[in-house]
Amino acid sequence: MKHTSAIVFPLALAALSSCTLSDGLDLSVKKSSSVDPSEITAKVMFVGNSFTYFNDMPSIFASLGTSLGMHVEAIGITKGAQHLIDTANSSDEVGKQFDEALKSPHTHFILQEHTTTPTSNFSNFLAGVRACKAKIVATQQNPKIYLYSTWAYTSMLNGGETIPQCEARIRAAYEDCGNQTSLPVLYAGKAFTYAYEHQPTINLYGEDDKHPSYAGSYLVAATHLASLFGVDPRSTTFFGDLAEKDAKALLEIAYGVANRLI
Questions:
Q1: pLDDT of residue 22
Q2: DSSP-derived 3-state class of residue 74
Q3: What is the C-alpha to C-alpha distance for residues 149 and 115, in angstroms, rounded to an integer?
Q4: What is the pLDDT of residues 134-160, one digit of tens each?
Q5: Pick from 51, 129, 140: nearest CA to 84
Q6: DSSP-H helix ranges across the chain
Q7: What is d(CA 262, CA 258) in angstroms, rounded to the nearest whole number?
Q8: 157 near 116, Cβ under 8 Å?
Q9: Would you say 23 and 262 are in contact if contact means Cβ atoms under 8 Å apart?
Q10: Which terminal residue of the chain has fewer beta carbons within 10 Å of its beta carbon, N or C?
């Protein structure tokens, strides 16, 4: 199943802070930036599975960018439970869609692995990222490729492990893969965990307590956008299906993660 939506050309992704998620979010620290959103033009391809296509997250991403004055397009090459190693296979259903989409130029690529694979089968994860990267590099001019670190949920916890501890394992696996493939990591999972701990009245999970609710997808989209382009997501007027108060709380967290305040 292919999902499409819209985006633009980036600033380099800054390395994120190593401070713990229990640290307070100090938004008195502002990041100086001369970024003019109206000068940003990008075409982004999200490659992943249901953690990407739920609530049409790429469309939320594009809507946030457009509301800031960016020229943004985003498409999603996705299928439920899809693994990157399969997406890189030209005989796979999604792999065929990936190949076809690569015939058109894109500026940014965001790779999202099956949720449990980075921690349960790292070699498969690494092989999938390498294979997808090779296809992108072979077909695109100066592509910007990123890894989308996801979040934890109750049914994947080990023993007495907590949601933050499990997400930290996932994040570490993405960072390891990023180091081995020379790809930067987008810390959507870190933003998810911070919101889980510090904004408990905002439900980030859907009915299955695994996939994102609309609020979860909104937070992920805002974190990606701010991290990729250095724009301030808090300036948006797009709140989607959320109450303005909740949207603004999530935008603060996205800003904090992107600017190394979390």
A1: 37
A2: strand
A3: 9
A4: 999 999 999 999 999 999 999 999 999
A5: 129
A6: 50-53, 57-67, 84-87, 93-101, 117-120, 122-139, 163-181, 188-198, 214-229, 244-258
A7: 8
A8: no
A9: yes
A10: N
- Report the C-alpha gap between 41 and 21 in whole angstroms: 33
User: Is 250 within 8 Å of 262 (Cβ atoms)?
Assistant: no
Q: Which residues contact 53 (CB under 8 A, 6 or more apart)?
A: 1, 3, 76, 78, 80
Is it the case that residue 88 has pLDDT exceeding 70? Answer: yes
Q: Which two tokens stand for residue 141?
A: 């001019």
Check the CA dihedral 84-90-96-102 and report its sign. positive
* Number of Cβ within a 10 Å radius of residue 33: 12
Terminal Cα-to-Cα distance of the chain (whole angstroms): 35
96: number of Cβ within 10 Å:
14
Q: Which two tokens stand for residue 17?
A: 């802070």
Rounded to an integer, the average pLDDT of 33-46 is: 90
CA gap 128, 122 in Å, rounded: 10
Residues 6+ apart with CB under 8 A from 219: 188, 191, 192, 195, 204, 250, 253, 254
15 contacts 50 by C-beta, under 8 angstroms: no
What token pair was written down for 5?
């939506």
d(CA 208, CA 203): 12
Kindly report the pTM of this predicted structure.
Answer: 0.89
Cα–Cα nearest to 239, from 229, 257, 251: 251
Strand order in the sheet with 185-186: 3-4, 71-78, 41-48, 108-111, 144-148, 185-186
Burial class from Cβ neighbours inside 10 Å (0-12, 13-18, 19+) for residue 201 reads: exposed
